[in-house]
Amino acid sequence: MNARSLAAGLSLKPLGVSTGTSRWDLPRQTVDDGVVLRGLRRAVELGASFVDTADAHGEGHAERLIGKVLREYRNYEVHVISKVGRLRGSAPHPYAGPRIRHQLEQTLENLYQEDLALYVLDSYDFGPGDRYLGPVIEQMHTMRDRGDIRAIGLRGPTSAASPGEVRRFHLLVEELQPDVIWAQVSGLLPEVVLESGQTLNEFTLQRGLGLVIASPLAHGVLAGRRNRRALNSLCDNRICPEAAFAVVESELRDLAVRFGGGRGTLARLVLRSRLQQAPHAVIAVGVAEEHLVDECFALLPGDLTEDDLLYIDEAYTRIRAGLQALAGGVPERVGGP
């Protein structure tokens, strides 16, 4: 896998791993450190060039787990992406005062690293009247200039973003001038359409921004896993998870008929199709299932044809349409004017 340029001075191989997103919303005791550690170790051994995390994941606990693994694998070149903006600590606001710089110092200590590949602003809330926005922008650019971080990142809007949130994203892109956009993207989620009428993929490509795609497998659902928690989150408690998975499973069976039902085929289709359609992007898959990490790294090589890509996209479109019908008709494309 050839490295891809995300920003000036930052190139990463296209596949890395993430400590996850929604699992850290649950009580700490429900997160199995052993599962995370095994997944991280296996990913590093298979050639993952980066790990994606956030200081809010277990209030730094995920970062400390990564630090433990990186100390064990000192001879491996593994970069870290982390996020800031949701963990307040004792400060009046997550972005207050010198909070960003102090939090970066804590993050680097947790990770046993001297710098971060990418530091992502994870929230659009900069206090009343955006009082903290200017200082945050100044701190981020100073940290990049000093080499504490290699690139500045901004979270992209989700498929549930309102037009106001999409406008907010555009404003922050202009103010912050990030190098990279980080976003959760999967075939289960409706396409985000920006004010320009572009998708996030088109927008970042046109502006020369790198793109980090997180959760492309929808917590394993698109790889054929019956992840009830993921489906509950996806459906927002409006529909039965079993009914939702029946919709997904029907289309996954169709994909298996065309491309083969071997172990890892579905995961490969997700990753390869995303990477071929976004040459400026890298992908982070979750480490919750060690064998799924194996599938992702073992089966990534090999291009899909244009007909293959169209077939896969149409299958995911039918999945979204089926889920939207169950949920009462959420629009397929959201966030635009």
Automatic annotation (TrEMBL):
Keywords: Plasmid. It comes from the Bacteria. SUPFAM superfamilies: NAD(P)-linked oxidoreductase. It holds the Pfam family Aldo_ket_red. Residues 19-316 form the NADP-dependent oxidoreductase domain. Signal peptide: none annotated. This is Aldo/keto reductase. It comes from Streptomyces sp. R39.
